[in-house]
Amino acid sequence: MGIDRAPVKPVNGLSTGGFDWTGASVAQDKAGAGDESDAESREVAKKKKRRNPEIKVDKTGDLDKYGPQSVADFERQLLGQPNSSLLWLQYMEFQIKLSEVDKARDIAERALKTIHIREEEEKMNVWTALLNLEIEFGSDSSVEEVFKRACQYNDAQEMHRKLANSYIVTGRHQKADEVFQNMTKTKAFTADPKTWLEYASFLFTKLADPARARALLPRATQSVPQHAHRQLTEDFARLEFSSPHGDAERGRTIYERLLSTFPKRRDIWERLINIEEAKGERENVRRLYGRLTGMGIKSRWAKDVFKKWLLFEEKGGDAKAVEHVKAKAAEFVAAQK
After folding, report:
1. Which of 171, 183, 176 is closest to 203 using CA atoms?
2. Where along the chain do its domains lie?
3. Rounded to two decimals, what is the model's pTM?
């Protein structure tokens, strides 16, 4: 259907700054303004050319915010931080994500050569990362080769612990067990209580083999110095309480032997009380406090014990027990006077 329209009158273009937005006046102005507009265009172009070389993209902020994102970024940062094991390890991870395992190995070797010899901890971090890389992507022989080299340049016992931990983290528990067994057969390591305690903890928690863990204590006491026996024995007792495969009654038995040998060791009493309280064994806690305050301890220690005992009963909300503790405290003070 046709619609009649009124004739459209020519409209002058909207001119802003000399530019015609509709283009209607171009034909009229072309002859007179052509030379002038060309000159202006050339001038603008010259100004742009002069400005363009000065415009540079500064990516320093992005590097600080997101970290190195390319090989060039890592290489540039390493020039300023050659002893940073964290940066070297990030570089290795970057290559591994690109499936460039060999390049990651090369970076680790570069790091070991580059990091200053006095930066022992930084070097140790790289050795550990290289071990982890071989465990994940290499073979038993490549792990063994790197491990032997690492032991030559670092504390051998610490490297054994690092290797065992790497196997544990990656779920290779049989391999970790082999490392621990080697450690308990190495005289240089057996004098350290940590060797036995870490192995026992591993057997309790990861292999669920408490019998083998308990069998370590007699061997350990034959190897560690005499002065370390008490603490090591207590640590084994605490494993019985804390491990899901432990036996709390066995732990109590070990603690009782310790208390009969060291009846005035305040720290042993307090740790056992804290363990029983954490396990919610309120009657056991009461018995321990009662035994302790009835064995003639010094007044300053007794004051602390009664204070903790009273707080324990108040937290439990037992009014009768609170009064009992107060009465016991009063009896103790009267006896002292």
Report:
1. 176
2. 62-154, 263-337
3. 0.76
Q: Which helix (H) or strand (E) holds 191?
A: none
Q: What is the pLDDT of residue 183?
A: 98
Q: Mean pLDDT in each 10-residue stretch from start to end of the chain (337 residues)?
A: 39 33 36 48 54 45 70 95 97 97 98 96 97 97 97 97 97 98 96 98 97 98 97 98 96 98 96 97 96 92 96 91 94 87
Helix (H) or strand (E) holding 248: helix 248-261
Dihedral of CA 100/101/102/105: which sign? positive
Residues 6+ apart with CB under 8 A from 194: 161
Q: Where are the beta strands (DSSP E) in the chain?
A: 15-16, 19-20
> Is the four-CA dihedral 72, 76, 82, 84 of positive or negative sign?
negative
Q: Which residues contact 91 (CB under 8 A, 6 or more apart)?
A: 68, 74, 78, 107
Interatomic CA distance for residues 241 and 250, integer angstroms: 9
Residues 6 or more apart whose CB falls under 8 angstroms from that of 155 comprise: none
Residue among 10, 40, 36 nearest 25 (CA): 10
Tell me the sheet residues that pair with 16: 19
Q: Which tokens sit at 17?
A: 């700054």
pLDDT for 68 equals 87
3-class DSSP string for 158-180: HHHHHHHHHHHHCCCHHHHHHHH
**Strand intervals (E) in 74-197:** none
Structure tokens at 113: 């050569």
